[in-house]
């Protein structure tokens, strides 16, 4: 049971880490963004329209128009500050969790994880090489 208790404590400590706090705030902002919700809905509608029109043999011009609009919406979503914030926060949490996993793996096996590139950018310096 000791390992489970340590894991629970680790989880509680991680939940309080600034990276995870930021991720939760970014998720909330994403969920509350009416503008992003509208863009995502429009994106989905245009994707379905492409699928529908692709089945028609003489719809190339319309397909091109829909694809161009889809590309515009995609760019707006990807550049939206709320979406950028969420992606950035998620990437930072993913990198941090990989660092935590690398530390655990190293302490179990005594070997550096294969993701170590020896410049410490992939492990956050946890490999101690």
What distinguishing features does this structure have?
129 residues; mainly alpha; 5 helices; 78% helix; elongated
Provide a quick synopsis of the model.
The chain is mostly helical.
Structural topology:
Elements: H1 2-16, H2 18-32, H3 34-54, H4 60-79, H5 81-109
Helix pairs in contact: 2-5, 3-4
Summarize the helix and strand pattern as letters: HHHHH
Number of helical regions: 5
Termini separation: 32 Å
Shape: elongated
* Total number of strands: 0
Secondary structure category: mainly alpha
Q: What proportion strand?
A: under 5%
Mean pLDDT: 89
Cα radius of gyration in angstroms: 22 Å
Provide the low-confidence segments as ranges: none
The major sheet is characterized as: none
Helix content: over 70%
Question: Please, could you describe this protein's structure?
Answer:
The protein is an all-alpha fold and 129 residues long. 78% of the residues lie in helices and 0% in strands. The protein has five helices and no strands. Helix 2 (18-32) packs antiparallel against helix 5 (81-109) and helix 3 (34-54) packs antiparallel against helix 4 (60-79).
